[in-house]
Write a structure and sequence with these properties.
Blueprint (H helix, E strand, L loop, with lengths): L1 E4 L3 H9 L5 E3 L10 E6 L6 E5 L10 E4 L3 H11 L9 E3 L6 H8 L5 E6 L2 E6 L2 E6 L2 E6 L8 H9 L4 E4 L3 H21 L11 H20 L7 H14 L6 H7 L10 H11 L4 H13 L1
Helix pairs in contact: 2-3, 5-6, 5-7, 5-8, 5-10, 6-7, 6-9, 9-10
Bound molecules: NADP nicotinamide-adenine-dinucleotide phosphate.
Length: 294
């Protein structure tokens, strides 16, 4: 049985694509609601009708996928783990950084893995989950206890038909995504623009170079491969152009009045600057301004 903690867009994507009958959502404490019914629109083909039960007391999952937002993850796991066997691998799907380390530090004996995914899923209306973009999910261990689980969990997740790859350097891959997200997402939210439209705007043009300077120093301090600020800017802008019409998750959260994941993107970088004594005022400013949008 694969348990999924977080019955949102990402959780429903995996629940709809993994073999039927092998998946259950993890309820909040004291909550034993009716099974979850929804329509699932795959990238190709007709919508499917999906029903996913909730994990019942006494059921022991052999895999736990965590698809909550980064800010909810620690609390959600604190409730869910007492009824999860200690040997069950935990796979964290959160964007950004910070929440993964919190989990690995809080439960060092448990096998903790992280996934970095370029799959896209959203819920444009209640009861409908759309697989909006096909991607790849990279999977790697965050602690020694997780190491032996990477290959078998990758194989288990690949039964969904989604592309899943073991990743020896999952932290490095999460960092690569963090850099892109830090350079695009706050601007899309603050400027209320699709990804491509930020590039010509004065606010973006004012801050992107100092932001990339900060990120370049922070990459070095964190032991990640060095990247010059100009290269970081080129990389960020190439992605913004390639995804020009897309609405970032941060802008979507802002428009829907939901809390964003800024604390785990630019906020994480600002905290890292504090820890390494590296000035990160642009990351701090972007974090504060995005938080003011809520
Ligand atoms: P989402 O649609 O908001 O789903 C999160 C789900 O977690 C919600 O259903 C929420 O329930 C549930 N939840 C929150 N606290 C919980 C708790 N204590 N116990 C049980 N469930 C709880 O978010 P998402 O888009 O799936 O994203 C999840 C994570 O995946 C994020 O970190 C995101 O950055 C990452 N990600 C998403 C995508 C994507 O395409 N969607 C792509 C890459 C990465 P309520 O709604 O009832 O609060």
């Amino acid at each position: 049985m694969i348990a999924i903690l977080g019955a949102g867009s990402m959780g429903r994507l995996w629940a709809a694509t993994l073999p039927a009958g092998q998946v259950a959502f993890v309820p909040r404490p004291g909550q034993h609601p009716e099974p979850v019914h929804y329509r699932f629109q795959p990238i190709e083909g007709e919508p499917l009708s999906v029903t996913v039960p909730w994990l019942q007391p006494g059921q022991s999952p052999d895999l736990l996928l965590v698809t909550t937002k980064a800010g909810d993850t620690l609390e959600a796991l604190t409730s869910a783990l007492p009824s999860t066997p200690p040997s069950t691998p935990i796979v964290l799907f959160q964007n950004g950084l910070g929440s993964q380390q919190q989990v690995a530090e809080t439960w060092p004996e448990r096998p903790v893995l992280a996934a970095s995914t370029t799959e896209g899923a959203n819920r444009p209306q209640p009861g409908l989950t759309v697989h909006a973009g096909r991607g790849t999910t990279w999977l790697g261990a965050l602690n020694p206890a997780g190491q032996a689980h990477v290959e078998p969990v990758a194989q288990q997740l690949a039964t969904s038909g989604l592309a899943v790859q073991p990743e020896p350097d999952i932290l490095g891959r999460l960092w690569q995504k963090l850099v892109i997200n830090a350079g695009i997402n706050p601007f899309t939210a603050l400027l209320d623009s699709p990804n491509g439209e930020i590039l010509g705007q004065p606010f973006y043009l004012k801050w992107i170079d100092p932001l990339c300077q900060e990120i370049s120093q922070l990459l070095d301090a964190a032991g990640q491969p060095s990247a010059a600020p100009e290269i970081l800017r080129e990389t960020i802008e190439a992605v913004a152009r390639k995804t020009a019409a897309n609405t970032s998750s941060m802008r979507a959260d802002m428009l829907a009045g939901r809390e964003t994941e800024i604390d785990f993107i630019n906020g994480y970088l600002a905290r890292l600057g504090h820890r390494y004594n590296i000035a990160a005022p642009v990351n701090q400013m972007l974090t504060e301004r995005v938080k003011q949008l809520n």
